[in-house]
Amino acid sequence: MSDSPSARCDLVERARVFATQAHEHIGHQRKYSQQPYQVHLKAVVQLVAEVSDDPETLAAAWLHDTVEDTTATFGDIERAFGPVVMQLVAELTDASRPADGNRAARKAIDLHHLAQASARAQTIKLADLTDNCRDICRHDPAFARVYLVEATALLGVLTAGDSTLYRRAQQAMASCAQRLGLPRPALTWESGELPPLPPEPSYAQRRTQRLFTAAFTARDVSEPLLSFDTGHAADDMASHLDRRGVAVAGLRQAGLCVGYVRAGDLRAGTAGAVLRPFVPAQLLPGDAPLSDVIGVLYRFDFCFVTAMGNVPGVITRGDIQKPIVRMWLFGIVTLVEMDLTSRLRSHWPDGNWTRLLSRSRLDKAQELLEERRRRGQQPDLVDCLQLADKATVLMQDAAQLAAYGFETKGAAQRVIKDMESLRNHLAHAQDIITHDWAQIARLAQRIEDTLALTA
User: Is position 345 within any domain?
Assistant: First the structure.
């Protein structure tokens, strides 16, 4: 990157535009105020700008949620802003996968990830924590009590970040605690130490997922990864990939794939000159569940499949359109709806749930009930509710809301709305990557917890 002032300003401005458009593309808004998400991004950048004028740090501040929350990948970030900015964004992106367990387990993994982040990345995270703390405390006192515990844990590992922003984060947390009538937050372990990672989920917790995903694995949707020796001529390799319409190939040393190259990187010389080592987070065994595959593709352009110490397969987002994945996604939505139905019946066996639904929605269900009975079927009113109706009823009950891992009714409603959108696009054979990729990724993050409830 050029060191001229204009080049530095251009990098930050391009990052602002990229991040703004990426979040607008999925209709991303602030949770409580419904403001455009860039309001939060701008606040984070302004805090970072008070202590740093480094353009790569400011660019990463604009982009810090882009891979985690939008359809952009680390590859997109690297191509647009270079490897340094991409690395900062990677350090700020959650490292946990859906199969790593419940919220507490994933938070512990992400905590360890941030503890290893660079000082620049930790500085951005301090600004992010400060703005989030202010927003949550102002709008959601109930969840703020939970967030303060998590934020305190984060503060314990962000000691390499800027000292001014560290104190600003402490002040924001103290102010929130005072507003809630809580004692001033204090670190629960000595500086430099980390709480232990949680144990692996129990067999009982994972049993249902294993049964359901046995026929839906990474191996089933992967394509063979073409591979060449690292000394292969780059231009010849580019021709091979172009003829086959392939965007990526593996590179071999001593017969084993040690990395990959993108077709667009191949120019002259040998292919090994542009080799990209495999990132561990991009590698999955062949029997990995599809939820893990989606977790990888949410962050990276490519998911590589391993077998017997080698890398014979690759999966791209385009492979998510395959029939087997569409079947799997439809099955997930169906399983969730079945669980909602079962819980509704067991929690309100006397049918008193009807008082929790609007008259218009009840009338719709009653019309469907009468039509189905006219056709000789024997459903009850619960069977005739829409997915969103069942969720609306259940989420009126605090215990049911907590059982599904939601902090607020609004959060539950957004997830259910995403699921309905996805199911409709699946049913009508529409392009789910263009329409529903962000929803698919968020749904995959909830699979483990949701299916564990039905185990």
Answer: yes
**Is 140 known to be catalytic?**
no
Which of 158-172, 296-310, 394-408, 411-425 is the least confident region? 394-408
68 is catalytic: yes
What sign does the CA torsion over 421, 136, 132, 115 have? Answer: negative
Q: Which residue has the higher pLDDT, 201 or 93?
A: 93
209: burial class by Cβ within 10 Å (0-12, 13-18, 19+)? buried
In a domain, 209, yes or no: no
Q: Which of 10, 13, 54, 68 is catalytic?
A: 68
Contacts of residues 251-260 at CB distance under 8 Å and 24 or more positions apart, as own/partner, are 251/227, 251/275, 252/227, 252/228, 253/229, 256/309, 256/310, 257/225, 257/227, 257/310, 257/311, 257/312, 258/230, 260/225, 260/302, 260/304, 260/314
Task: Render pLDDT for 383-393 as a digit per residue (tens, 0 to 9).
Answer: 999 998 999 99
Give the helix/strand (H/E) hosting 44: helix 38-49
Residue for token pair 């009807």: 354
Residue 211 covered by a domain: no
Report the predicted TM-score, pTM, of the whole model to 2 decimal places: 0.69
65, 137: one domain: yes
Tokens linked to 230? 């690292």
Contact 249, 353 (CB under 8 A): no
CA distance 207 to 341: 21
Least confident of 34-43, 89-98, 256-265, 267-276: 89-98
What domain range includes position 42? Answer: 5-179
Which of 56, 65, 69, 301 is flagged as catalytic? 69
Q: What percent of the chain has pLDDT over 90?
A: 51
Distance CA 423, CA 431 (A): 12
Beta-bridge partner residues of 304: 283, 314
Confidence of residue 410 (pLDDT cuts 50, 70, 90): confident
Residue 229 pLDDT greater than 60, yes or no: yes
Pairing label, strands 303-307, 283-285: parallel
Residues 227 and 107 in one domain: no
- Average pLDDT of span 341-362: 88
**Phi/psi at 438 (5° precision):** -60, -40
